[in-house]
Every structure is written in structure tokens, then in C-alpha cells.
Amino acid sequence: MIKVVLVDDHELVRTGFRMILAAQKGIDVVGEAADGEEGLTLIRKTRPDVALVDVHMPKLSGIELTDRARRSRFATRIVILTVVNEAPFPKRLIEAGAMGYLTKACAAEELVRAVRQVADGRRYLSPDVAEALALGVLDGNLASPFDALSARELDVAMMLAQGQDMQHIATLLKLSAKTVATYKYRLFDKLGVENPVALAHLAHMHGLLDNRARAMLAE
After folding, report:
1. Beta strand 2-7 pairing with 100-103
2. CATH number for the domain running over 2-138
3. What is residue 210's predicted lDDT score, i.e. its pLDDT?
4. Where are the domains of the chain?
5. Domain 145-218 has CATH 1.10.10.10
6. In this predicted model, what pLDDT tens digit does every residue of 187-213 receive, in sequence order?
7. Are 8 and 81 in contact (CB under 8 A)?
8. Measuring CA to CA, which residue among 197, 114, 208 is closest to residue 163?
């Protein structure tokens, strides 16, 4: 039996995925979480075979969750859920350490195939993600401006784009506020943005932020 947990702040996404997976033989959805911190706790508690994790979430991004799960040596294999549009897909997501990458618009058959393949120890890359990466290579350009960021800078960028304040980010990442500020100014310079709203817009363009989060930050 393949044990699966769903970590996504969109209830409709979790419900749809749960219904699809529950109808499959040999797959059991053992838990759900609505944010990154809750998701990490759930993974620690249930030790599932596969975790479907949204790249954008409150508190902890899917990237940070994946990194913490890897450093904790959990056996759980993580599949990142993202949004890919016409903009180049960030290679940084591929380097985050997850075993699979799916778009939220994937077909039911693809979701099931990805879960089974990752549970079997094989990587899975959504055709949409693979195409976006291939186009970036063919263009001969850096796939995404976010590829210029270090792993920690990307963590901070994701949290800033979600509207989280500096002190909260420092607490979550176990860093000093001064260190977070250094990361902030460094990543702003690398990305060519001047404020969190511009950062959120850029993150949205590259599939790192959903429409709802961007709208909330702009309010």
C-alpha cells in the first residue's frame, strides 16, 4: 500500500486529488495539511511514502519543506505541485531535492502515474515542466531569474512574495533578522526588483506564486 499525504493550502485541490487517489487500488491518503509547517509535522508523524506538496504555501514554502524533510532524512519522497505558464520554469525547483514535479492542471491519470512512479523510487517530471525546461535550454538563456538565487535566497524570496514579514521569516528559518535583511537586499538586487509586490509579480510569472497570493499581497 502506498501511503500519501496532501499538503496544499487550496482545499479544492486537496479534495480533488484525494478523490482521484482514493479510487485507486494500493493507494491510501493518510492525511492532509493546509500549510507548510503543518505539512512537515504531518510527514514526521505519518511517515508516508509520497507527499504531494504545493510549491506556494503559507508559513513554509514547498521548497523549504522539501529541504527540511531531506535534512531530517525522512524516507518520504516529495512531489512538488506547481503552476507552469509561458514563462521559463525555474531550475531551482528541480534542484530542491524533490522526486517529482507536477502541474496542478494535470490529468487524473498523470497524477496516479506520478505517485506510483515516485513511490517506486523513480523521478517523475510533468510533460509541461519538461517542455518549459527544454524551451529554456533551446533559447540559450537562463531558464529563470530565480536560478541566480542561492537556495536560502530562494526560500526568503518565496516567503517575501507571500507577504510574510521579516521577523516571521527569521523565526521560521531560524535566522537573525539582520541575516534575513541581507538575503532580502541581495535577492532584490539579483532579480532587479525594488519591493515585495514586484517580487510577487515576478514569482507569479514564473509559476512560483498563485493568483490568490499575489492578489492578497497587492491589497
Report:
1. unpaired
2. 3.40.50.2300
3. 60
4. 2-138, 145-218
5. yes
6. 999 999 999 989 988 887 776 766 555
7. yes
8. 197
